[in-house]
Design brief:
By secondary structure, the chain is mainly α. It has 2 domains: 1-59, Arc Repressor Mutant, subunit A; 70-207, Tetracycline Repressor, domain 2. The chain has 10 helices and no strands. The N and C termini lie far apart (69 Å).
Length: 208
């Protein structure tokens, strides 16, 4: 008897997690290719090369899958950005890296951003509320909170000038988000690196 062999439950848990990850990746690919409205469990199953019944075993329906996918996408982007920001020491450096890494994530995972936008503008919460109508003040997202804290710390330490933190944070996030939504012709004229560098310069001047 091999004492090092994992228990059956552990093997089953690992297999189930791997299957869920396969489904999540197929859902991202499907959303990126055909959009939320045309996406169905059967089309996700076809992309994944599995049966629709197998997806239904792990997710109750399309809404359940999309809700869990949204949380996973937000967690992925937040981790990517915050890990890099927290390596910096000054508010100015943190703000620079915040903008840079936010845009770099878009360039590194374009299909993730496409899937995220499709869900936000088309899906609804379990309470039937469109995601784009959710009140940030009630359920503040971790990225926007981090940005506000960077700006607040910068003002307290005298690195930044006087401005309304909420207005500045929304402006910066709006400019970052805008690159996700621009027409492909625009991205051909202004590549991601140029957009990132120019935005950092603009924000540096705006924050004083």
């Amino acid at each position: 008897m091999n004492e090092n062999k994992p228990p059956v439950e552990e093997n089953q848990s690992f297999i189930a997690e791997a299957r869920r990850e396969q489904i999540i990746k197929a859902a991202i690919k499907t959303l990126d290719e055909i959009g939320y409205v045309k996406t169905s469990l059967s089309k996700i199953a076809k992309t994944a090369g599995i049966s629709t019944a197998l997806i239904s075993y792990h997710f109750s329906d399309k809404s359940d899958l999309m809700n869990q996918l949204l949380m996973k996408l937000i967690e992925s982007s937040s981790t990517y950005i915050l890990t890099r920001v927290q390596m910096e020491s000054t508010p100015r450096e943190k703000l620079h890296v915040f903008i840079e890494s936010s845009l770099a994530y878009q360039g590194t995972y374009p299909s993730h951003n496409a899937a995220l936008l499709e869900i936000i503008f088309n899906a609804r919460t379990p309470e039937n509320i469109p995601y784009y109508k959710l009140n940030d003040e009630e359920e503040d997202d971790v990225i926007l909170h981090e940005l506000r804290e960077i700006l607040r710390e910068g003002q307290e330490k005298g690195e930044f000038g006087a401005f309304n933190i909420h207005v500045m944070a929304n402006m910066i996030q709006g400019a970052i988000g805008e690159y996700m939504m621009v027409h492909p012709n625009h991205t051909q004229k202004v590549d991601l690196e140029t957009y990132s560098n120019e935005l950092i310069k603009i924000v540096q001047k705006a924050t004083g």
